[in-house]
């Protein structure tokens, strides 16, 4: 039997071997639940329409107050922390696959945005940031060939 280190980023996680499940169980037990929960990167979807850009951050289980959104030098930084709260019900966790910890994601924005009209909302575990475009600023330029 070959032990395969558990890797959640592998595309085919449906066909995990029994040994990989054992490996994950024992690694989590010996490493302690808190060690692997210091950092995570929530999944982000970015879309563009004619009037705006939209950033959607999947962060279920968090509150609005857990997020920070900062604009600086043409970049937007979304940061926050999802805390692991052990309840005092004397539960023994056998597996914890949910990611916990702090995160920070920075995205560089184009020049044709209206920084003063950016809006953010949080509903059903999705932080949505709408960044309107400034129609007066055109990014496309035609360069004449000499």
Automatic annotation (TrEMBL):
CDD domains reported for this sequence: ACD_sHsps-like
Domain SHSP: 35-146
UniProt xrefs under InterPro entries: A-crystallin/Hsp20_dom, HSP20-like_chaperone, Small_HSP
Cross-referenced Pfam families: HSP20
Gene3D superfamilies: 2.60.40.790
Domain of life (superkingdom): Bacteria
Family according to the record: Belongs to the small heat shock protein (HSP20) family.
Name listed for the protein in its UniProt record: HSP20 family protein
């Amino acid at each position: 039997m070959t032990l395969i280190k558990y890797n959640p980023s592998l595309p085919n996680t449906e066909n995990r071997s029994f040994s990989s499940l054992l490996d994950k169980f024992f690694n989590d037990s010996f490493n302690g639940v808190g060690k692997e929960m210091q950092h995570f990167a929530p999944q982000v979807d970015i879309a563009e329409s004619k009037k705006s850009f939209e950033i959607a951050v999947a962060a279920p289980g968090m509150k609005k107050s857990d997020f920070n959104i900062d604009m600086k030098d043409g970049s937007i930084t979304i940061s926050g922390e999802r805390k692991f709260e052990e309840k005092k019900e004397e539960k023994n966790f056998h597996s914890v696959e949910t990611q916990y910890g702090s995160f920070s994601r920075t995205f560089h924005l184009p020049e044709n945005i209206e920084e003063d009209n950016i809006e953010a909302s949080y509903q059903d575990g999705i932080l949505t940031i709408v960044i309107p475009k400034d129609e007066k600023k055109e990014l496309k330029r035609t360069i004449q060939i000499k």
